[in-house]
């Protein structure tokens, strides 16, 4: 149960009053999630009930949060289905609840799809592309804090915990990624705000007439400025991967890339570097999972995910350099 900090109805009431969201009629701790305290709240305003999520951030600070919340607000206001943070009179999006930074966003409907089909992938791919385009007019800058410089800092920290074969794989991959990052074709890639963690559990779908309808993306707290193709690669490494074997699911990948490409045609340089970015995405999550697993932070509430899954994905991505059929199909 992800309620690390208890919030009373009257504390929620005070915040909702400040935000002019009406009278809180229900407040329930949310069982999902492991990083933050989340409450589902309903509030009545002018005879209508609206549903919200009240989040108390257990890891991120008051200073770090505006980038993420402003990005969500910007995307929501540009027609992308993401939770929109509520501002107070002064335009602030982060508030103090129980000495923790807190925010209130609208609740998206639906549920995560943990066994996605090509139809789910098509909808996520299209909205990912639209999200990238909508992000072009977002001005605040914050790098992807889980990007190359974090990999360079963190690989040496996890090395002592690895077997010889794992050490070889991770150091060779890091060297390869440093090489890619130095290429002029990499420097020229289009970039902007990316989600950077858009896994199956960060997307919700409704069911309408027995068919899935994407209701939105959430959990933007690893977002940052990075290449759009890296964001696409992170998605392909989760939505289009067999979780048992780490193997590419070509049907899902084709659907994901084709619908992304329809909204925003990939540049030749992006196509050329996609295989390298698939490796980068696998390295990023293998590394963060190794780091969480072997070096749990003090008093951390995070339950580490299985690192070996992304070791398998990386191995697959390195040995099957490119799923040519998938890319060719969306050319
Ligand atoms: N805006 C939203 N609308 C609907 N449901 C939401 C929203 N935000 C969060 N949720 C629900 O709350 C659950 C927990 O949210 P989230 O995944 O952001 O938790 P977390 O603890 O912040 O992060 P983590 O994914 O790292 O555990 C989600 O699985 C989702 O079901
Ligand atoms: N999506 C990440 C968890 C952090 O949000 C992972 O699966 O390792």
TrEMBL record:
**One GO molecular-function entry:** kinase activity
So what does this thing catalyse? L-homoserine + ATP = O-phospho-L-homoserine + ADP + H(+)
Q: Which UniProt keywords apply?
A: Amino-acid biosynthesis, ATP-binding, Kinase, Nucleotide-binding, Threonine biosynthesis, Transferase
Q: What class of enzyme is it?
A: transferase
Instruction: From the UniProt record, give the pathway where this protein acts.
Output: Amino-acid biosynthesis; L-threonine biosynthesis; L-threonine from L-aspartate: step 4/5
Where would I find the Aminoglycoside phosphotransferase domain in this sequence? Answer: 27-253
Q: What is its EC number?
A: 2.7.1.39
- Similarity comment: family membership: Belongs to the pseudomonas-type ThrB family.
User: What HAMAP family does its record include?
Assistant: Homoser_kinase_2
Q: Which PANTHER family match?
A: AMINOGLYCOSIDE PHOSPHOTRANSFERASE DOMAIN-CONTAINING PROTEIN (PTHR21064:SF6), AMINOGLYCOSIDE PHOSPHOTRANSFERASE DOMAIN-CONTAINING PROTEIN-RELATED (PTHR21064)
Question: Any idea what this protein is called?
Answer: Homoserine kinase
Organism source for this protein? Rhodoferax lithotrophicus
The organism's lineage is: Bacteria, Pseudomonadati, Pseudomonadota, Betaproteobacteria, Burkholderiales
Which gene codes for it? Answer: thrB
């Amino acid at each position: 149960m992800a309620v690390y900090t208890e919030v009373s109805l009257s504390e929620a009431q005070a915040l909702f009053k400040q935000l002019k969201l009406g009278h809180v009629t229900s407040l329930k701790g949310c069982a999902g999630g492991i990083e933050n305290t989340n409450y589902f709240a309903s509030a009545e305003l002018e005879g209508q009930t609206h549903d919200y999520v009240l989040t108390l951030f257990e890891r991120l600070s008051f200073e770090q949060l505006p980038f993420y919340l402003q990005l969500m607000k910007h995307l929501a206001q540009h027609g992308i289905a993401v939770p929109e943070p509520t501002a107070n009179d002064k335009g602030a999006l982060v508030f103090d609840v129980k000495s923790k930074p807190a925010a209130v966003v609208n609740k998206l409907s639906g549920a995560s799809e943990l066994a996605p089909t090509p139809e789910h992938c098509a909808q996520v791919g299209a909205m990912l592309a639209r999200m990238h385009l909508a992000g072009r007019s977002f001005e605040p800058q914050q790098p992807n804090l889980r990007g190359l410089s974090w990999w360079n800092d963190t690989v040496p920290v996890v090395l002592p915990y690895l077997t010889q074969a794992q050490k070889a794989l991770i150091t060779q991959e890091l060297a390869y990624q440093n090489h890619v990052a130095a290429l002029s074709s990499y420097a020229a890639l289009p970039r902007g705000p990316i989600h950077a963690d858009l896994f199956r559990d960060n997307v919700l779908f409704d069911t309408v007439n027995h068919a899935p309808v994407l209701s939105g993306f959430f959990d933007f707290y690893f977002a940052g400025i990075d290449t759009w193709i890296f964001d696409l690669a992170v998605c392909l490494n989760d939505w289009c991967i067999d979780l048992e074997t780490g193997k590419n699911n070509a049907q899902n990948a084709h659907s994901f890339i084709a619908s992304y490409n329809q909204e925003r045609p990939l540049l030749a340089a992006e196509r050329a570097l996609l295989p390298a970015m698939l490796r980068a995405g696998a390295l990023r999550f293998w590394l963060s999972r190794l780091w969480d697993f072997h070096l749990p932070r003090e008093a951390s509430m995070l339950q580490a995910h299985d690192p070996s899954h992304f070791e398998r994905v990386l191995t697959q991505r390195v040995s099957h350099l490119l799923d040519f059929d998938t890319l060719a199909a969306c050319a």
